[in-house]
């Protein structure tokens, strides 16, 4: 069995952003040489997420509105966590959207459904953050 590990770095210019990382993750898979196995992709920061969904701009707007409805950024005083920081909403949004995805690898390709894409969700941007890609298989 082979193992592959790579860190991807992202720095969003905005506080919140959804970035399609499917092709970047697929490139990691090609680099690994693994043809059959499992791929783990996870955010290494507690205010960011990795998730799978459709890459459709209206849906992205819906995510923004839905997440803001559940955990609005302001007023900052709404959150107990915001004594030294202003990112409590980002922690909650990450919890809702999830930390990681696991994707089957079949014949050297990501075994995704027809519309499935892998996204990095940034909820407290404007600084560099890591995503881990770990692949095991043969």
Number of strands: 8
Residue windows where pLDDT falls under 50 for at least 5 positions: none
Mean pLDDT: 97
Oligomer: single chain
- The CATH class turns out to be Mainly Beta
Q: What level of helicity do the residues show?
A: 25-40%
Write down the domain tally: 1
- Which term fits the overall shape? elongated
Can you offer a commentary on this structure?
The protein is α+β, with helices and mostly antiparallel strands and 138 residues long. It has a single domain (2-137), classed as Jelly Rolls. 25% of the residues lie in helices and 38% in strands. The chain has helices spanning 22-32, 57-70, 88-97; strands spanning 2-11, 17-20, 37-43, 48-53, 100-106, 109-110, 117-122, 128-137. The strands form two sheets. It has a five-stranded antiparallel beta sheet with strand order 1-8-3-5-6, with helices on one face. A three-stranded antiparallel beta sheet has the order 2-7-4. The protein is elongated, with a radius of gyration of 16 Å.
Topology (SSEs and partners):
Layout lengths: L1 E10 L5 E4 L1 H11 L4 E7 L4 E6 L3 H14 L17 H10 L2 E7 L2 E2 L6 E6 L5 E10 L1
Antiparallel strand pairs: 1-8, 2-7, 3-5, 3-8, 4-7, 5-6
Any key phrases for this structure?
5-stranded antiparallel sheet; 3 helices; 8 strands; alpha+beta; 138 residues; 3-stranded antiparallel sheet; Jelly Rolls
Summarize the structure.
The protein has 138 residues and is an alpha+beta fold. It contains three helices and eight strands, in the order ββαββααββββ.
């Amino acid at each position: 069995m082979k193992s592959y590990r790579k860190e991807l770095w992202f720095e969003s210019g905005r506080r919140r952003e959804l970035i399609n990382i499917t092709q970047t993750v697929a490139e990691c898979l090609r680099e690994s040489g693994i043809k059959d196995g499992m791929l783990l992709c996870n955010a290494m920061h507690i205010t960011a997420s990795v998730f799978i969904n459709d890459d459709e701009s209206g849906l992205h707007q819906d995510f923004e509105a839905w997440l803001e409805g559940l955990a609005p950024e302001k007023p900052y005083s709404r959150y107990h966590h915001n004594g030294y920081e202003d990112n409590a909403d980002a922690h909650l949004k990450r919890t809702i959207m999830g930390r990681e995805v696991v994707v089957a690898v079949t014949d050297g390709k990501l075994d995704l459904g027809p519309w499935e894409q892998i996204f990095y969700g940034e909820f407290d941007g404007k600084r560099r953050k890591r995503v881990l890609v770990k692949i095991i298989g043969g």
